[in-house]
Amino acid sequence: MTRGAFIAGTDTDVGKTRVTLALLRALQGRGVKASGMKPVATGCRSLTARELSMFAGFYAVGDMINDDVAAIAALSPPECERTDINPYCFDWGVSPHIAANRAGVRIEPERIAAAYGRLAMHCDAVVVEGTGGWFAPIGELGTMADVAQRLGLPVVLTVGLRLGCLNHALLSVQAIGVTNLKLAGWIGSVLAPYMPALEENLATLDSMLGVPRLAVLPYSIATDADASHVVAAAAALFDEPASDRGGDLSL
Ligand SMILES: Nc1ncnc2c1ncn2[C@@H]1O[C@H](COP(=O)(O)OP(=O)(O)O)[C@@H](O)[C@H]1O
Ligand SMILES: [Mg+2]
C-alpha cells in the first residue's frame, strides 16, 4: 500500500521544501519508489537555458516554473505527471487564495486528492509539501488544513528554528490536534548559521509539543547531507509496520 505524509510548516520559509526533498532522497536511497507533491504553489519565474539540464524532460526553456515544484518534480519518477505533482500553480507569489482569485481559479481539495491518487498508483511513497502555514487560506473560507484533511495523511510539522518558533509550533500543534489527522512528529530546520539557545529551544519543543522529534536539519547552505539527517524519520514515517506485511514474521 502506498504511504504518504503531509509536510506542514510553522510558517512559510521554514524548511518544508528542504524537508520534503530530504525525505524523497532518503526514501529513494533505501530503494523506495517515492514521488513528491506540491498541491498548491504560488510564485513562478521563467526557466533559463542554464537550468534546463536540471529539469530535462519536465520543462523547456522559457517555461514558467515554481522553484519548489521544479525541485520536487526533478526528484520524482518520470511517469508521474507534472500536473499531478502540482495541480495548482499561480504566477503571483502571494497567498494562494489571492493568487487563485486573480487567476479566476477555485482551489478544490477534491481535485488535489484525485491527483494524489494517481501519484499513489505509480509510487510506494508520496511526500506532500503544504503551502505556507497550517491555516494558509486557499479560498474565501478554506485553508490548507482542508487540503490536509481531504488527503487524510499523517502530518509532519516542519519547525523553522528561529526566534518565535515555539509559539508558532505550539499553535500549529493545537490546530492540527483538533482534526482527526495523526501528527506523526516534527522536524526542525535551523534557518540561520547561529541561533541563540538552539539546544534550549529543541528541549522546549521536545517537552511541549507532545509528539516525537523525527529529525533536525542543521544549518547548511549545501543540501547534500540533508537526506542523511532524515533516514530514521523516513523509516518511521514510511516503513510498513510488521502487522501490515502479511504473514507471521516471527515464525
Ligand atoms: N537547515 C537549513 N540550513 C540552511 N538554510 C535553510 C535550512 N532550512 C531552510 N533553509 C533555507 O530557508 C529558505 C526557506 O526554506 P524552504 O525549504 O524553501 O522553506 P518552505 O518550503 O517552508 O517555504 C530557503 O532559502 C532554504 O534554503
Ligand atoms: Mg516550499
Keywords:
251 residues; 6-stranded parallel sheet; Rossmann fold; 10 helices; two-stranded parallel ribbon; binds magnesium ion; alpha/beta; 18% strand; 10 strands; disordered C terminus
Write the layout of secondary structure elements.
Elements: E1 3-9, H1 16-29, E2 34-37, E3 40-42, E4 45-46, E5 64-65, H2 67-74, H3 82-85, E6 88-90, H4 96-103, H5 109-122, E7 125-129, H6 144-151, E8 155-161, H7 165-177, E9 183-190, H8 198-209, E10 213-217, H9 226-229, H10 231-238
Helix pairs in contact: 1-10, 5-6, 7-8
Question: How does this structure look, described?
Answer:
The structure is a single chain. This protein has 251 residues and is of the alpha/beta class. It has a single domain, classed as Rossmann fold (3-Layer(aba) Sandwich), CATH 3.40.50.300. Helix content is 37%, strand content 18%. The protein contains 10 helices and 10 strands. Helix 1 packs across helix 10 (231-238). Mean pLDDT is 93; it is low at 245-251. Residues 16-17, 68, 129 line the site of magnesium ion (MG).
